[in-house]
Amino acid sequence: MTEQSPALDNLLTESRTFPPSDEFAGQANAKADLYATADADREQFWAGQAERLSWDTKWSQVLDWTNAPFAKWFVGGKLNVAYNCVDRHVESGHGDQVAIHWVGEPGDTRDITYSQLKDEVSRAANALSSLGVVAGDVVAIQLQMVPEAIFAMLACARIGALHSVVFGGFSPTALRARVDDAAAKIVITSDGQYRRGKAAPMKANVDEALQGAETVQKVIVVRRTGSDLEGETPWTEGRDLWWHELVDGQSAEHKPEAFDSEHPLFILYTSGTTGKPKGILHTSGGYLTQTAYTHNVVFDHKPGEDVYWCTADIGWITGHSYIVYGPLANRVTQVVYEGTPNTPHEGRHWEIVQKYKVSIYYTAPTLIRTFMKWGEDIPAKYDLSSLRVLGSVGEPINPEAWIWYREKIGANQTPIVDTWWQTETGAIMISPLPGVTAAKPGSAQRALPGISAKVVDDTGAEVPHGGGGYLVLDKPWPSMLRGVWGDEERFRDTYWSRFSEQGYYFAGDGAKYDEDGDIWLLGRVDDVMNVSGHRISTTEVESALVSHPTVAEAAVVGATDPTTGQGIVAFVILRGNAVDGGDDAVQELRNHVAKEIGPIAKPRQIMVVAELPKTRSGKIMRRLLRDVAENRQIGDVTTLADSSVMDLISSGLNSGK
Ligand code: ATP
Ligand code: MG
């Protein structure tokens, strides 16, 4: 490759556009002039956004970037994050507004008002303090989607302790690694969790994880499935405490202390799609400013009117930034659902949307493709007319899935916001503005006002419109990570060394500009395929496959090939779970890709499978499929949602299917 050539060939074209209706545009929180306002003076712009929050002490400087890549935002400012998410809404007269409509998987429900939330968080904060937890201590939280997870996170924030939330489905080994890495003093968990209609134990896993864990002094256990009533909750006297016994008796009065804007708020591990998870550190003032701002402008959220639902798990950054911090800072009324989308039936989400009149719905492409696979007649049975904004996050959304989402869920009229961001960025970075942008299916389009992103080539030079390369963030932003926990070298190496000369943050994702200069995400740089000297993105070939009416999901990898360098190997799931992957069907799919993209992208091999390996946050793990395609021993599967999927795929292939 010559130095000037783009890092990626730009193959798939998509020309449909969907401008907002005049009606939507007219009432939108963000108008087109926001871009120019932000460009005119970025620091002034962010200072304005920080005014969304209540500060105890105002900052003296917006940004200190002199010690790059370690940023300081709102220097000298002091605030309490939990006060901003809870108390101030009660003080402004909205104590009776429902903050959380919680829906349990078995059908039990709980509505929690801001007044009640304030009491719950205050009690939990008092409880943690009574155990000797002080500012700067680390509390590990392994809980499913129960209200106590949110109470616990906010209680930590209230007293200045850092939380490290560990996904409820993680194994003892994964939990232990995270507890040790951060030297957690307290672990908060539950006796068990409901999953697909059954109660599964949780405390037993935690006990296994904590054997010999010296930093952990207390384990607080939320009673959810009541397994102790059957004598099935293992218990360590002196260490273990029931949440209801410890917390319920505490005072509901708690004075929030103001902490420095750069006081650490939490550690969270990345999902491990590309390798060993990284413990990402976020701090207070900048993080809360950007999550609140983006939640307001990207989702067009109106406090007191909208009902919002982000379907992410609290164990991922989306759950932190768009269930807990951004939305609650903005006085949201939101749905929090405990269970899986097909329990007890495949219309569960739509039933909830109908019941609570959800108006803003934010989910991941993997779930949208699953809904497509289940069939459009399922959402058609429910009244979804309350929906007015739809969002997507986690992976590039294939144009066909985007169109399906808009037509079948959004009544062919709701704006869709395809939001690109990462654990590391803390908040949304690239996304349409729903009242401004003429949306293009499959494109995240443009950096938000106040944010700057570029697509560059190997040398760090910006590629021309129509060209492809690496996505970088060329200016610091308020919710940026402040480091990798305990590993400064990994922080510098992973994000700042690739384009150190320019001082750009390297996101690790491939991207391209279209002719209008809009940004399209093309998957991980690690996943880019090289076929006869052409650098081809997995996303584009997958989107071409998904655009065929028989295909629900596709994952594409490059496997070593003696003649072309790499050959394209595709794994597909058919719609309606059809399994007829006969030779004719496969041939038709190969030809379809050639027609959509060009002969160079025609897969060498297509395999019909029933499942794909996904992380527990729903992302396809291509590195494992590459191991299969190249007949290698399969790599680390600890963050897979279901590790048996790999056995299924490998055995299907070996039997010649
Ligand atoms: P690890 O860094 O450990 O491999 P991860 O990158 O999967 O884990 P996250 O921080 O949860 O962990 O995911 C961020 C990544 O998700 C982005 O780098 C990008 O690849 C992908 N992503 C998120 N949103 C979008 C989007 N709207 N379009 C395209 N890709 C997206
Ligand atoms: Mg990542």
From TrEMBL:
Gene Ontology cellular component list: cytosol
GO BP, one annotated term: acetyl-CoA biosynthetic process from acetate
Residues reported to bind ATP: G394, E395, P396, D418, T419, W420, W421, Q422, T423, D509, R524, R535
EC number in record: 6.2.1.1
Cofactors required: Mg(2+)
Domain spans labelled AMP-dependent synthetase/ligase: 92-484
Any one GO molecular-function label of the UniProt entry: AMP binding
All copies of domain Acetyl-coenzyme A synthetase N-terminal, residue ranges: 33-85
SUPFAM superfamilies tied to this protein: Acetyl-CoA synthetase-like
Enzyme class (EC, first level): ligase
Reaction(s) catalysed by this chain's protein: acetate + ATP + CoA = acetyl-CoA + AMP + diphosphate
Description of post-translational modifications: Acetylated. Deacetylation by the SIR2-homolog deacetylase activates the enzyme.
Residue ranges annotated for the AMP-binding enzyme C-terminal domain, each copy included: 540-619
Cited InterPro entries: Ac_CoA_lig, ACAS_N, AMP-bd_C, AMP-bd_C_sf, AMP-binding_CS, AMP-dep_synth/lig_dom, ANL_N_sf
A Pfam family this chain is assigned to: AMP-binding_C
Annotated CoA binding sites: R195, R196, G197, K198, T318, N342, S532
Keywords: Acetylation, ATP-binding, Ligase, Magnesium, Metal-binding, Nucleotide-binding
Residue sites binding Mg(2+) per the record: V546, H548, V551
Positions carrying N6-acetyllysine: K619
Family: Belongs to the ATP-dependent AMP-binding enzyme family.
Record's function text: Catalyzes the conversion of acetate into acetyl-CoA (AcCoA), an essential intermediate at the junction of anabolic and catabolic pathways. AcsA undergoes a two-step reaction. In the first half reaction, AcsA combines acetate with ATP to form acetyl-adenylate (AcAMP) intermediate. In the second half reaction, it can then transfer the acetyl group from AcAMP to the sulfhydryl group of CoA, forming the product AcCoA.
Name of this protein: Acetyl-coenzyme A synthetase
Source organism (scientific name): Amycolatopsis rubida
